[in-house]
Description:
The structure is a homodimer. In chain A, helix 4 (137-151) runs antiparallel to helix 5 (161-174). Chain A has helices at 15-30, 46-55, 120-131, 137-151, 161-174, 178-189, 197-200, 225-229, 232-246, 272-279, 296-307; strands spanning 5-8, 36-40, 61-62, 71-75, 91-97, 111-114, 205-209, 214-222, 250-257, 262-268, 287-290. In chain A, strand 1 (5-8), helix 1 (15-30) and strand 2 (36-40) form a beta-alpha-beta unit. By secondary structure, the first copy, chain A, is α/β, with parallel strands linked by helices. In chain A, strands 3-2-1-4-5-6 form a 6-stranded parallel sheet. In chain A, strands 7-8-9-10-11 form a 5-stranded mixed sheet, sandwiched between helices. The longest helix of chain A is centred in the N-terminal third of the chain and has 16 residues, at 15-30. In chain A, 40% of the residues lie in helices and 19% in strands. Chain A binds chain B through residues 98-117, 130, 297, 302, 305, and chain B through 98-117, 130, 297, 302, 305. Strand 6 of chain A pairs antiparallel with strand 6 of chain B, so a sheet runs across the interface.
Amino acid sequence: xxxxxxxxxxxxxxxxxxxxxxxxxxxxxxxxxxxxxxxxxxxxxxxxxxxxxxxxxxxxxxxxxxxxxxxxxxxxxxxxxxxxxxxxxxxxxxxxxxxxxxxxxxxxxxxxxxxxxxxxxxxxxxxxxxxxxxxxxxxxxxxxxxxxxxxxxxxxxxxxxxxxxxxxxxxxxxxxxxxxxxxxxxxxxxxxxxxxxxxxxxxxxxxxxxxxxxxxxxxxxxxxxxxxxxxxxxxxxxxxxxxxxxxxxxxxxxxxxxxxxxxxxxxxxxxxxxxxxxxxxxxxxxxxxxxxxxxxxxxxxxxxxxxx
Amino acid sequence: xxxxxxxxxxxxxxxxxxxxxxxxxxxxxxxxxxxxxxxxxxxxxxxxxxxxxxxxxxxxxxxxxxxxxxxxxxxxxxxxxxxxxxxxxxxxxxxxxxxxxxxxxxxxxxxxxxxxxxxxxxxxxxxxxxxxxxxxxxxxxxxxxxxxxxxxxxxxxxxxxxxxxxxxxxxxxxxxxxxxxxxxxxxxxxxxxxxxxxxxxxxxxxxxxxxxxxxxxxxxxxxxxxxxxxxxxxxxxxxxxxxxxxxxxxxxxxxxxxxxxxxxxxxxxxxxxxxxxxxxxxxxxxxxxxxxxxxxxxxxxxxxxxxx
Lengths: 308, 308
């Protein structure tokens, strides 16, 4: 492995992190850069598994940490606390991302491509176009899956015209009904029955470290918030344990209804009043309903970050 | 001014910071983005003045600080301590840079284009190519001047094949003898007679803040190191004053012979032994000759940073 350049998305990988890593490797090969390899920092979620099964391709290799000076490419993230163990001493050659930049530093100049789009794959789609390489059906479905996942079929407020245009063109190349495929994919991702509460709260969790506060915003997608709330008591136990173990000031667990575009959040921790302040609403039974809220990046994180 | 998006390079602007800012504004206009404007964070140096006079274009407007939420575009830098006062609360829309990323953070996603090239203008040259816009003679000379300045006519070890290729093609568009023009431009920049010692040590100075050390690496280019060293005593006085005022641990003043590609450094400050350690050489009379060293970014900064 050591001589390969490792490509990976963030911890608790979502569909964009996995599919964009695979696409990046394909694009690198087309550009004649043959020693890069897609890897991953965690378990494949059910939504992503649906994509891999659909395309009959294997999951990228799991990695747990990197050695000093390991050459790496970061996809769909830049913050070190969302990245692999050892990232501080790795050699970051390239970042492709659509998030804010924070907790990120390098010793050397590097390639960094960020665009404020809804999805990393939309940036890769534009790189394909600029490079003049033809997009094959497989790549088209991989990138389309990322866009569908990150934008909830273009319904999330993070959606930009670039994502819409990319998905339109990718649908033509893929020659499948993207809406039908996308709904199946999203539904596959919302089957939460097999997960323990510990797993539920860490499936897609982002830890954020501020000067005077450490907090987590975790999110699950569902087609029925009610269904998930049946497990509220056990979920709260798991969250409380996590808060203690990681010395968190607050833990926000967002249950997002992807069909109706709303979220219910469960909030625990010493600083839970700051969440009430953030959204101008009282928690009842540790819960709060947020109408129209589906995006952690755009609707939860900035509001919480400002008030904590 | 307020409704304009301000484009600027780093403090103590060099030719790349000024010319790339002007080129960025031109490129924005060609892309239909009409409300961006090139500005600058400091005095125009003599080398850059040579370029502006040659092209008969005025210097960008000087700005001292920015208001909260001012929209800005950072050129040729990203570290906040090299940027404008108030940058922490500005809204950074875009960065185009060729340096390492450090001391940089945003609240929102943004456009960020970094490439490990010798010069920011080489990145802009590639953006011109990708966008399909024609490069006019004026833009060609502006970008060529940046490349000549940052790479010392392609002789600096920071030079990449991308810079070489860009300069070659820009020479064709500019229809001037680039070597002749470049030597005149570099020589214009090395006339240091008019500068006080205080000015000399801050003409092109970068402040770096580490957890346990704050240091400055300043650089002047010359065609005669001897000539500059005649003023060593007064230069040291100016440096000592600076160290006191800014509570610096070490100040490195590099006098770089651009014709023969060597540097003499003058070093003062409590941590000056760490500079001796860094280069495995003793200071004599506070000085050290560094053969083949011309690049702060590639040959001074990383070595010093590792040993301080």
